[in-house]
């Protein structure tokens, strides 16, 4: 025990060596020490040993894996290419109040840096070159320490690093020497786009989108990534189950939105993957409902679409249930169709099939079911899109819709994570050409699961959350816990 404590103390007090830039001489060292620990503006194995093991840059992902990702990207890019990847910008709520920051997926995937303001450049000639934000003492007072050039080399394992203020002197020459410049078009930064060299390259058709290459790399998850995604799915599954139990007595959408966020963060999630969808009754028929400001009426179904982020990896899960513990006959009929479609589509998840194939199967099942229920007229299947305009699922990873540039007919492979989420959305009053019997009006039902493709089939990452009708009604009817207003649960559901 004493020896282990001594080793930890020695690691915590190590001072990282100085970094000499190959081109620009000595880089001035910043005062990164905080209580004897090298502070890079985010958790490290020394500052947060409970989160990171030795050799990890972010929790669960080693420096070797980050270096391997960079090598793979260079291997798939054309010869003499230059990849430019900007970090996300810090968005401001007011002039001095920032929104919570979330890093750009490609920048985090390549560098491991979770802070705003940087630009990463990758080429065969230079390896990884990171341009880090210039930080003054006043910034540190208000915002805390951030990573600089020292951290870029010593912690993030960049081959070269410079202050961002030097980029206009260094990057143009790198652009001129390259045959092609690749960057993420949707998340590009004016810090390099305004350079004359970049503009000239763009006019000469040398500038192309990098996303198709990074999306390909991010399509199949490593063992380390899968472990993080399993944990993210586990966190949101446990949290939703607790929220479902609370819905028996607390019927405000806002309260349930607060509950799911609380439960996720108490279990280790850093943030929600997106603003929770908490739709009671007709609100569930709005696919991306976000107001969460109504009270759920007795007899209404509740749809919750939620996800959380666990060290850069996201989860995505939807359940629909009756908080009072009983489905009406019409609700049960429609729910049974969506559940059957969910289960049959999950069976199709295996190597070699594609999201498109699974989607087409779901459309056939739902059209047939809608026609049998009288929701969709025979011979008018084009009206199906008014009932369900969404795809059956999407790739999931560091972003909710991950690897979006890849074709939907790309065969699934072991290590890919997708969602399966059939649904139906019937507004209280007809919209456009949609028509449905009155008893189905104002219903929205979606059942979404996360599926990991394995060598011989699939693994359901969200299997622990009930979705069978019998399981949901039993769960909602357990006990007689007092309601918020002091009435018994059974009385609240009557």
TrEMBL record:
Coiled-coil regions listed in the entry: none
InterPro entries according to UniProt: Aminopep_P_N, Creatin/AminoP/Spt16_N, Creatinase/aminopeptidase-like, Pept_M24, Pept_M24_MAP, X-Pro_dipept-like
Entry's Gene Ontology molecular function annotations: hydrolase activity; metal ion binding
Cofactor: Mn(2+)
Domain Aminopeptidase P N-terminal, chain residue ranges per copy: 61-192
Entry keyword annotation includes Manganese: yes
Keywords assigned by UniProt, alphabetized: Hydrolase, Manganese, Metal-binding
SUPFAM superfamilies in UniProt: Creatinase/aminopeptidase (SSF55920), Creatinase/prolidase N-terminal domain (SSF53092)
Keyword Hydrolase in record: yes
Domain of life of the source: Eukaryota
Family statement drawn from the similarity comment of this UniProt entry: Belongs to the peptidase M24B family.
Name of the molecule in the record: Aminopeptidase P N-terminal domain-containing protein
Originating organism: Urochloa decumbens
